[in-house]
Design brief:
The structure holds two protein chains of two kinds.
Chain A (H helix, E strand, L loop, with lengths): L4 E15 L5 E16 L3 E5 L6 H8 L7 E6 L2 E2 L5 H8 L2 E4 L13 H11 L4 H14 L16 H13 L5 E5 L7 H18 L2 E5 L3 H7 L2 E6 L2 E7 H6 L4 H9 L40 H5 L5 E4 L2 E3 L7
Helix pairs in contact in A: 3-4, 3-5, 4-5, 5-6
Chain B lengths: L7 E12 L2 E13 L4 E5 L6 H8 L8 E9 L2 E2 L5 H7 L4 E4 L3 H4 L6 H10 L6 H14 L5 H4 L9 H13 L5 E5 L7 H18 L2 E6 L2 H7 L2 E6 L2 E7 H6 L4 H9 L46 E3 L5 E3 L18
Helix pairs in contact in B: 4-5, 4-7, 7-8
Classes of the chains: A alpha/beta, B alpha/beta.
Chain lengths: 323, 335
């Protein structure tokens, strides 16, 4: 590693027990299963995958909204996955989250000033300073400071997402986890919010963990991109390398599945996967993708492929790729 | 006039919703037509009127909304004034419908096979056994593995993609001449979406159904449709064959819309944006609804722009594309 990492995630597992009648655990959902990656300060890691792949659970675990089953999450050298109480409250300012649906993540009965300032209140920042920092955060995301007196329903969808971003920024975070942060927005507004996030990164040196199902958006914002499938990180590379030369068949299929408005869309050869995602309750043996992989061989069912550095900086978990 | 009657011909359609003592027009003078085997995509952001247009076409505009003007002709027959009962007979028979969320289209407490059988027998005299055979065939033709077993499953036992195929099977149960797809893949994952779109394309080749597809995703339109209708603020901004629209959009709104979407393989520092956001339907500017967000807006845009038709099949509603008005003849007091 040439750059020092702000966030280091090592062998992280988040499992959810499924309880049956009588409270007996009869199955375990391996939502996140042995994921490791780094995010350097000021950089963006994009995380893509289909529903149920564990990308949101991963984000929530780093944010400490879900408790990690095992593994570690280190932020600027400090282990944060096992914190609780006041220690957790102190570090929480450093990692902030932006959610998908700005309407359901903003309390409709609170004024914007209270929504944005709530984290500061928890940290016992004095009222006058709080008001000033809220006003600054609003201006930074392109909202006038006098809008602080309004309620969420008085804003458009794009403005509400700006409020969500202001709420994250007011804490002066080092890392912002954006979970489908622009997915609910219309495309013209989505572009505004993406541009804003980029400006903020340049001004404030924020690192982003950008979680999305939209591969085109992820390519646009990310320095590096990780692909998840059924709880596993299956490929990790610089954005350009991943999109130009995906190594893992799943990534290849995912990329070729995107409907494209490009003029030459008709010339592309599309890989259409058969079947659906298997249930995370009973993932396939060996490589979890093998049941839908058109290249699968015997070894794929027997041994689980490990994520290895196939080319410099380009990691893939697949038995079938060669350096 | 072509001698072939289009499957669907919408002319100057308007729809409105009451708001207090006022009426808000949400679809305003929309015209397009779909020939047999053709597919037209209605594209727009939320509030563009694309869904209300589609719902008006099939007589399902939600109350208290109503069609306020214009005509909808289905196979040459004006169905604008058709009774609810007549429309119900047509839907599911001549017109198949697939909505965004398959779970709301299916009965959660009935097995999927009987739901298809019911759809067939609602419109055709056919024995239950024959209809069941037909249902299994439909499921098989839509790429559903082991259709005999799936026939017996409840909807919640199927994945999202499979459910949407069951909805499609119901829509196709009576060989409709028109298929209306309203955001059919928005709730699906991208690999499953690709499967579904491939299926729709294959259907077009195989049975030649006319398709109207409503979507916010211009990429989806590019995959499936020949013709695109771009809507904004209840009006058609631009209408063109897909290739031409993508290669050379004419309306500033279309240009902005295409520029806002990141394209894979083209890493731009910043995305082009359209400033502001879509106004609520009661706050649309007069004249061109896009004028308050348009970088090319001029005084004339306060008047409703005419639709300019190009010989290559494109049309655009924008003053920029209107030939400059003939130089004003020096009449009295011109200055």
């Amino acid at each position: 590693m040439t750059e020092s990492s702000l966030l280091e995630v090592r062998d992280l597992h988040t499992h959810f027990p499924v309880k049956g009648p009588g409270g007996r655990v009869h199955a375990v959902v391996q939502a996140v299963d042995g994921v490791s990656f780094d995010i350097p300060a000021g950089r963006t890691l994009g995380l893509v995958g289909e529903s149920g792949c564990g990308k949101s659970t991963l984000g929530r675990t780093i944010m400490n909204l879900e408790r990690a089953t095992s593994g570690s999450v280190t932020l600027a050298g400090q282990e944060i996955s096992q914190l609780s109480g006041s220690a957790l409250r102190r570090t929480r300012g450093k990692v902030q989250m932006i959610f998908q649906d700005p309407l359901s993540s903003l309390d409709p009965r609170m004024r914007v000033e209270r929504i944005v300032g709530e984290g500061l209140a928890v940290q016992r920042v004095p009222r006058a300073e709080r008001a000033e920092r809220v006003a600054e955060a609003l201006e930074r995301v392109g909202l006038r400071r006098d809008l602080a007196r309004r309620y969420p329903h008085q804003f458009s969808g794009g403005q509400r997402q700006r409020i969500g971003i202001a709420r994250a920024l007011v804490m002066n975070p080092d890392l912002v986890i954006a979970d489908e942060a622009v997915s609910a927005l219309d495309v013209s507004v989505q572009a505004q919010v993406l541009n804003l996030m980029r400006e903020l990164q340049q001004e404030l040196g924020l690192a982003y963990l950008f979680i999305s199902h939209d591969l085109a958006v992820v390519e646009h914002v990310s320095d590096r991109v990780g692909v998840m499938y059924l709880g596993k990180l299956v490929e990790l590379a610089d954005a350009e390398a991943l999109y130009a030369e995906p190594l893992m068949p799943y990534t290849e299929a995912l990329l070729s599945a995107i409907p494209s408005a490009g003029v030459a869309a008709g010339d592309r050869e599309r890989i259409v996967l058969s079947g659906d995602l298997p249930t995370p309750l009973a993932p396939p043996s060996g490589c979890r993708f093998r049941t839908r992989c058109w290249k699968a061989q015997d070894v794929c069912a027997m041994e689980e492929p490990v994520l290895r550095e196939v080319r410099p900086g380009h990691w893939a978990a697949c038995h079938l790729v060669d350096a | 006039m072509a001698d072939v009657v289009p499957v669907l011909e919408v002319t100057d359609l308007s729809a409105e919703f009451p708001a207090g003592d006022r009426r808000i027009t949400v679809v305003d003078g929309v015209s397009f037509s779909v020939g047999a085997g053709a597919s037209v995509g209605l594209v727009g952001e939320s509030g563009s009127g694309k869904s209300v247009t589609a719902m008006s076409v099939i007589g399902m505009i939600p109350a208290p909304g109503r069609v306020a003007g214009g005509t909808v002709r289905f196979q040459g027959e004006d169905i604008t004034k058709a009774s609810a009962k007549a429309m119900r007979r047509r839907r599911g028979k001549d017109i198949g419908l697939v909505l965004q969320d398959p779970m709301t289209a299916l009965n959660p407490v009935q097995r999927v096979g009987p739901q298809i059988v019911e759809a067939i027998r609602a419109h055709q005299r056919m024995s239950k056994e024959k209809a069941a055979t037909r249902a299994v065939e439909l499921l098989r033709s839509l790429g559903i593995p082991s259709p005999e077993q799936r026939f017996q499953e409840y909807p919640h036992r199927l994945s999202g993609g499979m459910r949407q195929r069951v909805v499609l099977a119901i829509a196709l149960a009576n060989d409709p001449s028109l298929l209306v797809l309203d955001e059919p893949t928005t709730a699906l994952d991208v690999t499953v979406q690709a499967q579904f779109l491939d299926l729709v394309k294959e259907l077009r080749r195989r049975i030649g159904t006319a398709i109207v597809m409503i979507t916010h995703d211009i990429g989806v339109v590019a995959e499936v449709c020949d013709e695109v209708v771009v809507m904004y603020g209840g009006r058609i901004m631009e209408q063109a064959p897909v290739g031409l629209l993508l290669a050379e959009p004419l309306h500033p709104y279309t240009v902005g819309l295409l520029g806002s979407v990141p394209t894979i393989g083209e890493r731009a520092e910043t995305l082009a944006t359209i400033r502001g956001s879509v106004p609520s339907p009661d706050a649309m500017p007069p004249g061109c609804p896009f004028s308050n967000r348009c970088d090319h807006a001029m005084a004339r845009c306060e008047e409703r722009p005419p639709v300019v038709r190009h010989p290559d099949g494109r049309s655009v509603a924008c003053w920029l594309h209107v030939e400059p008005a003939p130089a004003r003849t020096p009449t009295t007091g011109a200055a």
